Structures are given as C-alpha cells and as structure tokens.
Amino acid sequence: MDTPGKPARNAGPTGAPALLTSRDNRWLKEFRMALRGGLPTEGGFVGVEGVRLVEEALRSGCRIQGVLFSESGERHHQSLSSIIDRPEMAFPILRTTDRLFEGLADTEHPQGVAALVHPREASFDDFARSPLSVGAPLLVVMAGVQDPGNVGAILRTAAAFGVTGAATAASGISGTANPFSPKALRASAGAALHLPILAGISLSILLAQLKVAGVRTLASSVRQPRRGD
Fold it and tell me: Residue 14: pLDDT above 60?
C-alpha cells in the first residue's frame, strides 16, 4: 500500500483505487488529524473537504499529498477529473467507505471528497511583492482576529478586492486564528490557498518591515481608541 507522501496512484488490480476499510489505516489517520483534528500533519499538510475546496486546492498550485473519495463521493470524481487526471498531478487517489469518511470529516454533511494540501510557504518578500500587472502591493494584516470563520471571511473578501498578500499576527495577548484550519479554509472559499500568507508573524516586526519597504499602512479597529493611541 502507498504511504503518505509517495507520489503514486493507489490502484487495485482492476485499475480502480483500492478501498481503505480500516480505521487505523495510515492515510485515514492523516486525513482525520487534518480535518477533524484541525492540525497539520507531520509533513505540514492541511485538510480541505468538499468539492469546491478540493477543486480550489487542485487549481492553487500547492502541493497535494492525496485525494480521498468516499464510496458515495465518487460521483464527484468526474467533475474533478479534468484536473486530477493531468499527468503532472502525481498523487494517490484513495477510496474509503462512507462510514469511515464520516468519522474523519469536519462537516456535518460531508460531500465525500477531501484532499491533503501543503499551503504555499511565503517569505516577507513574497508577501510584499506584487505582480507586475498590479503595481503597488495591496496587503491585509489581521491582528487578534481569533475566530477562524472571521479570518476566512476577511481573506475571501480581500481576495475579491485584489489583495496580493496577507499576514496574521497577535494583538497584545490575543492571537489570530490559523488561516489554514478547516473552518478558516471553508470560510475563505479556498482564497487562503491562492495568496501568499505570513502566518503568526510579530506585528511590530511586520510593521517595521513594511515601513522599510515603503508600504503605506492604514489601520482599523472594532474598539474605541484610547487617548494617546
């Protein structure tokens, strides 16, 4: 059996992917950790679930470790086949039972398709650099946004407005939710996989770097500013 990370198709003798039927299968443990557990795997892969998010992951250019279908979810294979079946998409296609898929899914009514994807790694230069067609960079920085749904919604809205990069930082003792958690990824509609994101950077260091780079910064807050702020 293929092991996580091995770029080969997991096919049975008939050409169809072999059915994973053990809850203790290593692949299913990886998906369970990334989806229901909301944690990156040992290799840094995060879980995306549902047809739309899996399609966004496949189109993002991010590294894919594997795609998993449930028995009933295989009906979605056809709609994704134009991407999955490309020669350069060298990752395992996996199948499991509906019951086991429900046990690892993070949604109440799973669609039966999920993927393990490695978010793009971004440096400050990646974050602050804008495409030549755009001109000056347009960046969004979230500080102290603790709700992953809000983080995802901000990224989705920012992407719609043409933002070229994003960053998350703490505000005082309040950190910002992981933009690659399952809930944040769903709320972002996959936008988090297309943007260069600096996650967990120090706000003071980031602001200093932006100043040196000549990037103008504007701030907003839900709290009334105190005198002297």
Answer: no
Q: Which of 97, 118, 139 is the last residue of a domain?
A: 118
- In the chain, DSSP assigns E strands to 19-20, 46-49, 63-70, 93-96, 113-118, 139-143, 165-169, 197-198
CA-CA distance, 132 to 195, in Å (whole number)? Answer: 16
Locate 31 and state its tokens.
Answer: 């998906």
Neighbouring C-beta atoms of residue 228, cutoff 10 Å: 4
pLDDT by residue (tens digit) across 57-108? Answer: 999 999 999 999 999 999 999 899 989 988 888 899 999 999 999 999 999 9
Percent helix, percent strand, percent coil in the chain, to nearest 5 = 35, 15, 50
- E-strand ranges in 135-176 read 139-143, 165-169
Boundary (domain end) residue, out of 61, 87, 118: 118
225: confidence class by pLDDT, cuts 50, 70, 90:
low
**Planar angle of CA 64, 43, 63, nearest 5 degrees:** 20
On whether the CB atoms of residues 106 and 79 are closer than 8 A, the answer is: no
178 falls within a domain:
yes
